[in-house]
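Researcher: Good morning. I'm working through a list of sequences from a screen, and I'd like to move beyond sequence-only analysis. For each chain I'm collecting a predicted structure so we can compare shapes side by side. This is the next one on the list. No need for commentary yet; just the structure.
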Amino acid sequence: MTPLDLVRVAGCLWLASCVGPWPDGRDGVEPRVQLILPGTTGDGGWNQAHDAARLLVEEELGIETDVEELVGLLDVRDSIASALDGGANVVVTASSDYIVPTLEAASNNPDSYFLSCCGSSASDNLTSFFGRIYQPLYVAGGVAAEMSCTKRLGVVAALPVPQFIRHINAFTLGARAADRAVEVEVLWLDSYFDPKREAELADALMDNGADVVLVQTNSTIAIERSAQRTVQCGGDDVPVYSVGYHDEGMCDVAPERCLTSAYWNWAPYYASRFTALQQGTWDPFDVAWQPWISGDDSVVQLLDWPLFVPGKLRNDADQLANQLQEGNPAEPFVGPVFDNLGEVRIDSGESLTDEELERLCWFVEGVVDEDGDPAVVPNSCVGDF
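Model: Good morning. Structure tokens for this chain:
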């Protein structure tokens, strides 16, 4: 079954969105969708993944959609108002920065419908959505560790918020499950997109010995940069590999060095929600993060391994992926898990809830600074767990 076939039936693939009428018994509506993005649709990352899903669903469901790019936080309210004035009745806001203005707009426009990415709020006309991409990143971390000669990995990270810290931790847990000697250095961009600075941070990580770089920003700059570099290991020059994030095509810029990309496949989710709107069966209070499941209809995906990754390592990684897809959705945040100061953060047999994962502001064992000391989460991380 192709992705297009999946979209045609997605309204019933996600069973949680096919149950029961809305609480107020309203009839179905024909969606006219406005997608609001913080970046450009051609960024090769987060924004491109959302827009690709929009275009696919528009074609397959025959609905009207549009997109507005490069919307800053101060402009979100005006962008939502303009979309509604222009005839949109469904607004999708694709950034955690947009949550507050989206909530306000939903409250002020009860006859319109809102989908807020990365949040956890819901009301009669607003739902939130996200996915468990930390699980593909856990698997990618294990492969990165095995492919590393220096046993030092680097992360070009976007913003010090629980979302990115959660994903850095998952990547690190996967790496150290494969090799306890591995350390992971994180450098913060403090932005989603800054090409010049992204290249500088990638260089700094590699200058400090990282021979695998995980990219958490909205561009492919760090992947391209790492493909141009080697680092010293045991007296030899060794290649630097990379791991992409957000979009399926991230590895296209450096196929000879990019190990994989953990990416978003939003089309099945969008199709299920828009189909449920048409049928009047959407439950806006179903805000559980979408799981990593086998097949093309999973919201979170892991790009196939390139052939330069040894066959046994590819097979072992695929087996681990299957185990995660069939097991506890909280994995790898199942105890015992220690932070990088040696404190037990998750007791044996316990696991973090989604609410706790949304507030996670500490690093696991193995996340270090440039000197190899335990890295400190910036104070700007807002979370109480």
